[in-house]
Design a protein that fits this description.
124 residues; alpha+beta; Yope Regulator, Chain: A; five-stranded antiparallel β-sheet; 44% helix; globular
């Protein structure tokens, strides 16, 4: 029982750090209740996974530099490697000022992508 509570606390702490990162960019709104994420023009560019890591969408050149610099890897969800997303190491997640540079790059990259149609539930 204690292990479950400890894990939940770690999850909550990481969500707080993710929220702090999101708040560092004035034009960004965190979305998602069970899986926090950010998107622009219908293109998701960051998320906090159920596996307790932050995934960040980066353009190829920045992605390669990020992986080499922080000794991390591409994100994987449900057994599928997400070729544009990197796993943000926990140590870096705690350094909002350092991570903000990459979050801003991610936002700019997603903004440059073709807008995706979004579906909203219409009220009757």
């Amino acid at each position: 029982m204690l292990l479950v509570e400890k894990s939940k606390t770690a999850w909550e702490e990481k969500v707080v750090l993710y929220d702090k990162l999101v708040a560092s960019h004035p034009d960004v709104e965190r979305k998602g209740a069970t899986m926090p994420y950010t998107s622009v023009n219908g293109n998701m560019y960051s998320y906090f996974s159920k596996d307790e890591f932050v995934g960040l969408r980066l353009p190829e050149d920045e992605r390669e530099k990020f992986i080499a610099k922080y000794k991390t890897k591409l994100a994987e969800q449900h057994g599928i490697v997400q070729k544009e997303y990197v796993v943000v190491p926990d140590k870096l997640l705690k350094k909002t000022a350092e991570l903000k540079k990459y979050f801003d790059i991610s936002y700019t990259y997603a903004s440059s992508l073709k807008p995706k149609a979004t579906t909203k539930v219409k009220k009757k």
